Amino acid sequence: MQNLEAFLLLKFRRGCCKLEAMRQRLGVRSLSWLFMIGTAVVLQALGVASVVVPSSNCYVLDNSSRIVDFSSWAGNIFEYEGKDSDLVVRFCKDVESRSQAGYVDFGRYDLFNYFVTGSGQVDFVQGFFNGDLMNCENSYDKRGRTAQVNVVCGSCLNGKCKGGLGCICNITYESTCRVFVELSIPCERPGPRVFQGFTVGFHPRSWEVVYNGMTQLGFEKSHHDFSFRTEQTHVALYMTAIASLSNLVQKPIIKVVPENGLEVRLSGAGATGTPPTTLSPTVVIVDWRCEKASDNPYEVNVTIPVEGYDPIQFILTKACEYRQDQGGDATRGWAIFGLLSCISSNFTPINSFKSKH
């Protein structure tokens, strides 16, 4: 424990020296800068991971906004033996009634999934829709046969199926078109706390980078396919949040890997801590300049602390195929070339006129 405290203290002192020099250059007020110092050093020392969207759509946010990822359970089969037919639940896939007469589809779990927290003794609820239509043409929203799976973490409420990999405790047919299933499984442990409603995108109404508080695939780590080109000297990031919670969003913090070779500066309302809302997104302008060419892209780790929640983190990848001069880039050469070409073309007719006369 003493070693950990000494390590954190050393990280804090080193971080303070670097950040204080930066504060003096930027002229930032001491009180706000102190908060930024503490946040940056703690996040760096503890190595906080980003809240990344799970690899499948088989997940749910619990009542405390923490991710409960059931991706490893997707497709697991649970059977319930009945008198005339058996009911089969394929977790996060579909629900079927099986008999000698054949299979009857009671709904599928698709991209427009319905996986929410439950109430009372039910921990989570899954909805399955768009099953077989026969004799259910006039069902709710004309969605055919449907099923609702009430997930109970642990043992069944009726005492059945204690421990193990879970089982179907009970089923109830509301009608020939709808069935309720009570499913008992050992649930996964909750993960990071998600700041729901928060988005980051490259346009005011887009969310390519962060959606609903979760970093999207492609920005959770460095990807060559998502790299920004050398000649792109800046990129705009638009942030939105639920208005009532927007004041929890803090100023973004950046870390460049490797540290030397790419100069990065942040500007815009989002960079100064202006709270973003859904109706009034705030923008963070990322200005970057390649000081050193590199065969491998640079990583710009962006961390947005959120009070009371796990921080928003994502990675922007920047290619540097050549060095860019201070205050501009290689495109300035093309501008000069165009100017000289224009002057040359204007002088050519004059010289031609003089030679004839």
What descriptive keywords fit this protein?
357 residues; elongated; 20 strands; Cation-dependent Mannose-6-phosphate Receptor, Chain A; Immunoglobulin-like; alpha+beta; 3 helices; 2 domains
Structure characterization notes:
Helix content is 19%, strand content 31%. With 357 residues, it is of the alpha+beta class. It has two domains: 156 residues, Immunoglobulin-like (Sandwich), CATH 2.60.40; 119 residues, Mannose-6-phosphate receptor binding domain (Cation-dependent Mannose-6-phosphate Receptor, Chain A). α1 crosses α2. The N terminus and C terminus are likely disordered.
Task: Write the SSE topology.
Elements: H1 2-26, H2 30-46, E1 59-61, E2 67-69, E3 77-81, E4 86-90, E5 94-99, E6 102-108, E7 114-117, E8 124-128, E9 146-153, E10 167-175, E11 178-185, E12 199-201, E13 210-211, E14 214-215, E15 234-240, E16 253-257, E17 262-267, E18 282-290, E19 298-304, E20 312-318, H3 331-356
Parallel strand pairs: 9-11
Antiparallel strand pairs: 1-2, 3-4, 4-5, 5-6, 7-8, 8-9, 10-11, 12-15, 13-14, 15-18, 16-19, 17-18, 19-20
Helix pairs in contact: 1-2
